[in-house]
Fold:
Amino acid sequence: MRARIVTLPGDGAGPEVTAEAVKVLSTIGARFGHRFAFEEALIGGAAIDATGEPLPSTSLDGCQQADAVLLGAVGGPKWADPTADVRPEQGLLALRKGLELFANLRPVRVLPTLVAASPLKHEVLSGVDLVIVRELTGGIYFGDRQEATDGAVEAHDTMSYTADEVRRIAHVAFRLARERRGSVVSVDKANVLASSRLWRRVVAEVAAEYEDVSLESMLVDTAAMQLLRRPGQFDVLLTANMFGDILADEASMLSGSMGMLPSASLGDGDGGLYEPIHGSAPDIAGRGIVNPLAAILSSAMLLRHSLGLETEAAVVEAAVERVLDGGYRTADIAGAGTTSIGTAEMGDRVTEQMLNDLSET
Structure:
């Protein structure tokens, strides 16, 4: 297979974790006979510094022509002024819109070997294996807004959804549930928000087309509590944009670290955007200690969803699990009885494990 992959390392620790994901993809390509061509482009603060824009047109054009896009992270203290006209996060939002990506998949699986890294009790974490399906291009992040400029004392952000926007993300969740354990929990705030009442009605209409999948509607505050109280009950969580953003970060603590969780942002085509859910980690950037596993696992999702390479994706995921079973950890998940290693060494361990596993088959 030939594939063109655009990398957007971004800011802070983004270049470090992206390098390890590329290392893994390059190893997979060489071992399986694929030709992956990597092209690097600018986004976020790095792009602002170089061009004055958070997403230069050349970067977007390259991503639109690629088979898949691999992103590191954007943002940092240098560009943290929320009143600035140009901010790194604008680049990410523009990229999602430009690529017409509306479905964000965030899998959360608690590996037995990492139970001790989570602040939750072992019995609470048993069997946790869920996916958050977050609507990505609607809701409060994209609705009408009024800034409190020039000393104004009022501002607003509008949470807006159309039935078609809800319907298309609901189909993604129900199709995914069919491949898993057949259960969807739809998260909303229908007791307060008109947009959530539309959301609940349309999701129920879509559910009628999937008789083999169960549906439960749950208020977002209840869902936030249940993610900590009994997370094993969830299979697929379907959420609006802002709710999914918050709940996914909460769910990351089930695995012990945001450095463990990958994500995929998908549209109607095969192309997609793949990124770790963590930020740019400016406090540890450049020190060679950031956890690259979320980026590496994101590369596995890239292989699976954009390139259709399920076997190769499974090889990456199995190697990550075996390295962790061997006791190797980056600082964020290290503990008693484990071996602490850096970013590059973790990438090396995963690639070596992949090659060892493949040599045995």
